[in-house]
């Protein structure tokens, strides 16, 4: 039995229904069963982590719990012939960080089917700058590439200064799209330009300019993290044959539309879920980030924090004030 002690952020449910969060010691043998024991080097902060951290039962049913849907680290124990001790793996999504202890602890134990080998040309830190946010942006862009192509296309990204948004702006511009960034943060124009946005539209200006159910067509491809009125506005604003990938709900889970953009402009709306994407597809996206999609200046997209620093960043993400990606270094 492995009695080794490690540190983890632990969220507890109090008797009065409130939640408290502390950095505490935990034993390896308190981790769930699994094929791989991984010493986590880095994790990252995603919107879902902030929900789990604050006691959202739609994400995490049972507390005490350690959030963290992303992790990269070194295998210390393996019961699988597919992975050897000392190998580095990336684990994102599935149940990790939801109801299985996640990457906000220094160790995780997970099934082998949740793990991808860290590609040789991808640095461990870079993999967590990308994290679930980048994986999701990658899955959106892969779908758009298949349906419409990227090079020379007019693209739009919502929530563009946030995690998924900034990764989408960066990757779309690298692949040759002409990117418009929709943002609520007037102070982030320079950041958005530096990651490749050609045009920046303030969220309220966009909302005020749209005529529904159909406005002037402006874009061929879109990545939407917002839902709500923003998504309704995008659906009204796509060019003929345009495609929107829908992956988030920071504005609202509901949206209004009509059939007109779909039957008169042949528009498409594609749903993206990175969490349950089969591991082969996730591994394929990681390989792309290590080759054709390699981003040289990933560094400027992130800030690295320790467990104490992460707690402050969680407050920001819950208020929609996140800029770029936050990486947790253990
Ligand atoms: N489907 C999937 O597999 C998947 C995976 C990862 C994340 N997600 C979802 O994607 C969304 C974004 O996640 P994230 O990790 O990128 O979060 P994030 O880092 O907090 O970014 C969200 C961004 O959305 C914008 N925003 C905030 N409030 C808004 C509002 N009321 N209306 C419109 N835009 C608003 C802000 O950017 P600006 O100020 O620049 O507008 C904010 O920075 C979340 O809903 C998350 O659950 C889904």
Quick structural summary:
The protein has helices at 47-53, 124-147, 163-174, 189-194, 203-209, 228-236, 260-264, 279-289, 307-318, and strands at residues 5-13, 19-27, 36-44, 70-78, 88-92, 107-110, 115-117, 154-157, 178-183, 199-202, 219-224, 238-246, 268-271, 302-305, 325-329.
Written description of the protein model:
The two termini are 24 Å apart. The model has no long low-confidence stretch (mean pLDDT 97). It contains nine helices and 15 strands. It is α/β, with parallel strands linked by helices and 330 residues long. The chain is globular and about 65 Å long. Helix 2 crosses helix 8. The longest helix is centred in the middle third of the chain and has 24 residues. Strand 12, helix 7 and strand 13 form a beta-alpha-beta unit. Strands 3, 4, 5, 6, 7, 14 and 15 form a seven-stranded mixed beta sheet that branches. Strands 10-9-8-11-12-13 form a six-stranded parallel beta sheet, with helices on both faces. Strands 1-2 form a two-stranded antiparallel sheet. NADP nicotinamide-adenine-dinucleotide phosphate binds next to helix 1, helix 2 and helix 3.
Rg value: 20 Å
Q: What small ligands are held by the chains?
A: NADP nicotinamide-adenine-dinucleotide phosphate
**Helical residues, percent:** 25-40%
What does the overall shape look like?
A: globular
Structure keywords:
single chain; 330 residues; alpha/beta; 15 strands; binds NADP nicotinamide-adenine-dinucleotide phosphate
